[in-house]
Amino acid sequence: xxxxxxxxxxxxxxxxxxxxxxxxxxxxxxxxxxxxxxxxxxxxxxxxxxxxxxxxxxxxxxxxxxxxxxxxxxxxxxxxxxxxxxxxxxxxxxxxx
Length: 97
Ligand SMILES: [Zn+2]
Fold this sequence. Notes:
Blueprint (H helix, E strand, L loop, with lengths): L6 H9 L4 E4 L4 E7 L2 E4 L15 H10 L20 H4 L8
Antiparallel strand pairs: 1-2, 2-3
The structure holds zinc ion.
The site of zinc ion has 8 residues, from helix 1.
C-alpha cells in the first residue's frame, strides 16, 4: 500500500468519499472536478505537506517509447507495470525521486 503524507490523507483516500484522489500510475494527487476532469494539487489539504511531483508527463513519455500514443484507445497494449505504480517504483527510472 502507498504511504501518503499523513493519516488523514491515507484514511480519506481509502474511504474514497472525498474529491481528492491519488492516481498511483502517475503518482498524482488531484481534485476530482467532474467525470473527466482532475485538477492536480501540490499540497496536502490536511497537513500542508508538499506532495511528490506528478509523473504524468513521464508516464506518457514512457508509453510513447513503447509505441502507445493513446492509452485510452490502446489500453490493451499497456504493460501491467504501467497499470499501477510498479513502473516508477521499479528503480528502472533513475531520474524519478
Ligand atoms: Zn497530509
